[in-house]
Amino acid sequence: MSITQQYLLDTYRARQLGEPAPPAPGAHDWQVVREWHDRRQFQAVLAGRPARGRIRRALRRWWSLWPRALG
User: Fold this and answer.
1) Mean pLDDT per 10-residue section of the chain, whose length is 71 residues
2) Phi and psi for 45 in degrees, rounded to 5?
């Protein structure tokens, strides 16, 4: 059974049971890839390698707000 056939079957069953339809195949692929990339960068920071990209910006933003939270 292909992914499309399984999706159509799941959608049909959900409709029969009055449940919300499942997400379409591939609907969250980019989000998964982005989270995987962020996780690898986070692991790099823990290992002592420099952060790059989104992680670096998030750490910089967090670090700039941290002293204000103390005082």
Assistant:
1) 90 95 86 87 82 73 71 56
2) -65, -45
Answer yes or no: pTM beyond 0.70.
no
Contacts with 51 (C-beta within 8 Å, 6 or more apart), sequence order: 41, 44, 45, 59
CA–CA distance, 38 with 46 (Å, rounded to integer): 12
Kindly state the tokens that stand for 35.
Answer: 């989270």
- Helix%, strand%, coil% for the chain, nearest 5: 70, 0, 30
Q: What SS3 state is found at 1? A: coil
Task: Check: CB of residue 7 under 8 Å from CB of residue 22.
Answer: yes
Q: Which residue has the tokens 């980019």?
A: 30
